[in-house]
Amino acid sequence: MNKALNDFTGTVRRAVDDYDMIQAGDRVAVGVSGGKDSLVLLAALSHLRSFYPRPFELEAITVELGFEGMDFTPVAALCEELGVPYTRLKTDIKEIVFDVRQEDNPCSLCAKMRRGALNDAIRERGVKKLALGHHFDDAVETFLLSLLFEGRISCFRPVTYLDRSGVTQIRPLVYAGEQKIAKLADELRLPVVENPCPQDKGSKRYEVKQLLKTMSADYPDMKSKIFGAMQRYPLPGWQPKENWRLNR
């Protein structure tokens, strides 16, 4: 067993335990975009299910947005290697967002349509738990996005129940930093599918990411302090069990 994956899975397990994300008998679908985050999440959860005391089933699903040049064949091969059932759902989200609607803020509509397609797809398969690849840095960035651009204190939750669809979203990577995820993806040689979206580096999130990068040069523990403040505040859904540990 790869030691780096084993250590990383320990970080994932702490998040799963702290926020009670997985119950015995759960069927968990991983939303696989093809990016490093979702592929590392898939690999870690696949490893976790081999020893976790609460047995659970795992499968993967990809919502294909319609961008040319995105080949998910290697992802399918990885899922076969891991013994994880894999579903690819073709959509026209790219055409609707960029060609038909020509949205000024395409990221918001794209994310909403992608989430809806994912929830509908897993519900049709009888799956009620969806694992998403949002990590530690995503949480800090989302918190600052809400604060700086909306004037409110808010962030997605580690566990979110969607009453309209009956789906529970879990985010097992909330204790894992982006650099650690990228390093593991390289070490495991995961088949990352590059995202050709024209908004990939033109969004408000990217601006906040660059702001954090600049400020962290002078205050290297800033993101950890923000994250800790989110848990101690606490934001709704962010209070972990006792003795939580953050391992970035």
Considering the chains and any ligands shown, give keywords for the structure.
single chain, 248 residues, alpha/beta, Rossmann fold, six-stranded mixed β-sheet, 9 helices, disordered C terminus
Short description:
The protein is an alpha/beta fold and 248 residues long.
Note down, in words, how this protein is organized.
The chain has 248 residues and is an alpha/beta fold. It has one domain (3-232): HUPs (Rossmann fold), CATH 3.40.50.620. Helices cover 47% and strands 12% of the residues. The protein contains 9 helices and 6 strands. The chain has helices at 3-18, 36-48, 73-82, 93-100, 106-124, 136-150, 178-188, 204-216, 222-232; strands spanning 27-31, 57-64, 86-90, 129-131, 159-162, 167-170. It has a 6-stranded mixed beta sheet, with helices on both faces. Helix 2 (36-48) links the parallel strand 1 (27-31) and strand 2. Helix 1 crosses helix 2 (36-48), helix 4 packs antiparallel against helix 5 and helix 6 (136-150) crosses helix 8 (204-216). The protein is globular and about 45 Å long. 35% of the residues are buried.
